[in-house]
Write a structure and sequence with these properties.
This protein has about 325 residues and is an alpha/beta fold. It contains 15 helices and nine strands. Strands 3-2-6-1-7-8-9 form a seven-stranded parallel beta sheet, sandwiched between helices. A two-stranded antiparallel ribbon has the order 4-5. α1 packs across α2, α2 crosses α3 and α14 packs antiparallel against α15. The relative contact order is 0.10. The site of magnesium ion (MG) has 3 residues, from α4. It is an enzyme of class 3 (hydrolase). Belongs to the SIMIBI class G3E GTPase family. ArgK/MeaB subfamily. It comes from Microvenator marinus.
C-alpha cells in the first residue's frame, strides 16, 4: 500500500496525538537531507516546540558490548510496568553502516520493550552521524517529547565524540562500565568521566560480582581526581545487572535524585540554557558546512587538491585557504 504523503499540519497533529506511525515518519522527516524535507521539518519543529521540555532526558553510553541495549530494555520495562511511565528510546546503531543489518539485532535485544504499548524504539543508522550520534538526534528527541513521552532515552556508543554530543542534549548522562580484566582504570576515558553524571558498572552478576564491586570502588576513587561538572553533584558509582534486572531501580532513583539536586541548585535550567545555545551553534555550523560542501566550485577545486594534500605536495593550510576564498568569492559574485 502506498503511503499517503503528509503535510506539516498532518505531522504536527499526528505527533501531538501520540500517533506512533506519524511519529516514526516525523523522525524520518527530521533526519532527511532533502531541501524540501528540511524546510518541512523546520516548520513542524517550530509548531511542536511549545510542547517540548517536560520529559526526563537521559543519555546512556558505554563501549560496545557493555550492555546498553539490555540495560535499556530492563530500565524501560521498570519505567513502564513499575512506574507507569511512557518511554521513547533513540538508539544509534553504530554497526549498521558497516554491516547493514544489526538494527534488527538491536530490535530483538529490546524485544520485550518493543512490544510494550507505552514504548517507542527508534534505531537510527549512524550514517550522517558524528561518532555514533545521528546529526538530528536532538531534533528527534524534541519530537518524541512533543508526542508526550515521559522519558526519552538516548543510547550512544562510547566511542569518538558522541558522548559529549549526547551529554549536551540530555539532563542526566549515564555511563555504563565493565569490570575489566587487569587494571580497572586502564580503559577509562577522561572525556567520558568529565561529562558523566552517574556511573554504573554493569554485569555485576554471577562470578563477576566481586570484580564489579572492586571496580566500583576504583572508579569512585578515580572520580575524586575530577572537578565535578556541577558543584552540587558528585557523580556516584553504582553496580547493576541489566541481564538479571538487578540494581536498575537504584540507577533510576539516582537519575531522579540528580535531577532534583540540579533543580534545587539552579543548575538544571542553566544546563538547558547552555544546551540551547550550543544547539544554535551546531545548527549554524551544520548549515555552513553543508553549503560549503555542496558548492560546485568548491567541489571541483577540492577534487584537484585532495591528492596533492595527501602526498604533502600542497600544504593543507594553503589548500583550506584556497577553498575558502573560492567559496566566499562565488558567494560575493
Ligand atoms: N552477564 C551479563 N551479561 C550481560 C548483561 N548485560 C548485557 N549482557 C550481555 O552482553 C552482551 C552485549 O549486550 P548488549 O546489550 O547488546 O550491549 P550493547 O552495549 O548494547 O552493545 P552494542 O549495541 O554492540 O554497543 C549480550 O550478550 C548481553 O546478553 C549483564 O548485566 N550481565
Ligand atoms: Mg546496543
Amino acid at each position: 500500500m502506498k503511503r499517503q504523503s503528509l503535510n506539516v499540519q498532518d505531522y504536527v497533529r499526528g505527533v501531538e496525538s501520540g500517533d506512533r506511525a506519524v511519529l516514526a515518519r516525523a523522525i524520518t522527516l527530521v533526519e532527511s537531507n532533502r531541501a524540501d524535507h528540511r524546510e518541512m521539518a523546520h516548520d513542524m519543529l517550530d509548531q511542536l516546540m511549545p510542547r517540548t521540555g517536560s520529559a526526563i532526558r537521559l543519555g546512556i553510553t558505554g563501549v560496545p558490548g557493555v550492555g546498553k541495549s539490555t540495560f535499556i530494555e530492563a530500565l524501560g520495562l521498570h519505567l513502564i510496568n513499575g512506574l507507569g511511565l511512557s518511554v521513547a528510546v533513540l538508539a544509534v546503531d553504530p554497526s549498521s553502516s558497516v554491516r547493514g543489518g544489526s538494527i534488527l539485532g538491536d530490535k530483538t535485544r529490546m524485544q520485550r520493550l518493543s512490544q510494550e504499548t507505552e514504548a517507542f524504539i527508534r534505531p537510527s543508522p549512524s550514517q550522517g552521524s558524528l561518532g555514533g550520534v545521528h546529526r538530528k538526534t536532538r531534533e528527534s528527541l524534541l519530537v518524541c517529547e512533543a508526542a508526550g513521552f515521559d522519558v526519552v532515552l538516548v543510547e550512544t556508543v562510547g566511542v569518538g565524540q558522541s558522548e559529549t554530543t549526547v551529554a549536551n542534549m540530555v539532563d542526566t548522562f549515564l555511563v555504563l562500565m565493565l569490570a575489566g580484566a587487569g587494571d580497572e582504570l586502564q580503559g577509562i576515558k577522561k572525556g567520558i568521566l568529565e561529562v558523566a553524571d552517574i556511573l554504573a558498572i554493569n554485569k555485576a552478576d554471577g562470578e563477576n560480582l566481586s570484580a564489579a564491586d572492586r571496580a566500583r570502588r576504583d572508579y569512585k576513587n578515580a572520580l575524586h581526581l575530577f572537578t565535578p561538572r556541577d558543584a552540587a553533584w558528585h557523580p556516584p558509582v553504582l553496580t547493576c545487572s541489566a541481564l538479571e534486572s538487578n540494581g536498575i531501580e537504584k540507577v533510576w532513583d539516582t537519575v531522579i535524585e540528580h535531577r532534583e539536586t540540579l533543580r534545587a541548585s539552579g543548575a538544571f535550567s542553566l544546563r538547558r540554557a547552555e544546551q540551547n545555545q550550543s544547539w544554535l551553534w551546531s545548527l549554524v555550523e551544520d548549515e555552513l558546512l553543508q553549503t560549503f560542501k555542496a558548492n560546485p566550485d568548491v567541489q571541483e577545486e577540492l577534487a584537484m587538491l585532495v591528492d596533492p594534500v595527501r602526498t604533502g605536495q600542497i600544504n593543507p593550510t594553503g589548500a583550506a585557504d584556497r577553498l575558502l576564498k573560492i567559496f566566499f568569492g562565488t558567494r560575493d559574485a
